[in-house]
Amino acid sequence: MRIYFSVMTIMLLFATVAYGQVDSTKVSVEVKIESSSDRTTEKEVYKRPVRVKTSWFSGFDLGFANFSDHTDYNSAEAQAFAPGSNTEWFDLKNGKSINVNIWVFQQKINLIHTHLNLKYALGLELNNYRYTNPIRFNKNQPYVSWDNTADRTYRKNKLAADYVNLPIMLNVNFGNPSNRFASNEKHSGCGVKVDKGKEWGFSAGISIAYLYSARNKTITSDEGKEKLKNNFNLNPWKLAYVGELNLGYFSIYGSYAFKSMFKNGLDMTPYTIGIRL
Length: 277
Fold this sequence. Notes:
Blueprint: H1 2-20, E1 34-36, E2 39-46, E3 52-69, H2 76-81, E4 98-112, E5 116-130, E6 135-137, E7 144-146, E8 154-173, E9 180-186, E10 189-195, E11 199-220, E12 224-229, E13 237-248, E14 251-257, E15 268-276
Antiparallel strand pairs: 1-2, 2-9, 3-4, 3-15, 4-5, 5-8, 6-7, 8-11, 9-10, 11-12, 11-13, 13-14, 14-15
């Protein structure tokens, strides 16, 4: 844990220094003009790529949340956490187990000619795990129990785990930088066309997330909607490998945690995959 916080601190210090050195008012311009009395004038202006690019509320992710279950259900620890549990207890409705990420702040630092960049962001990571079986979470141990109530049916049964998330990645961009602006002029009129470079490449790194909210929400035939808020022995910190494949107008993202999302009892390593817009 101490090592990863040190890495994060070094990266953020580097970003701060780089940001302080940026002078966005300095640009180098080369103008090429061809004109005649009856011919369109074409002009291309090249602007030096911005060293630091900052975005606010610039996008969101929509994908699937799941976990790799490595729990030894024969162990005393697992049975104390969820008495009578087995591998089938925590089966998910995969199509309804959703991950949503909302990015409040993103920043990219150009390291080498816009093709190698340092990227980091701050946002909210929202995970909903929808269970197929009638399991209920409790505030104290045993944290999970099987609901044997006669004639009760479940319309919804989910565990929601929400985090504040800080990913830090190195980005490789094979696309053209967004630094060319072309304009066409004819007599006194002016038409402007902007050529924006799209990002094609990939990013990889780690993320550090803190759990700020967790709850078990159920909708049953007799109780209706019930919501229980608690941490359910979830780890407050989550470290994960993160990556994205940039495809111009959108990206495919994924994450895989270093270890189980629970402190003990259940060994479930969460992961996500989806589309970044």
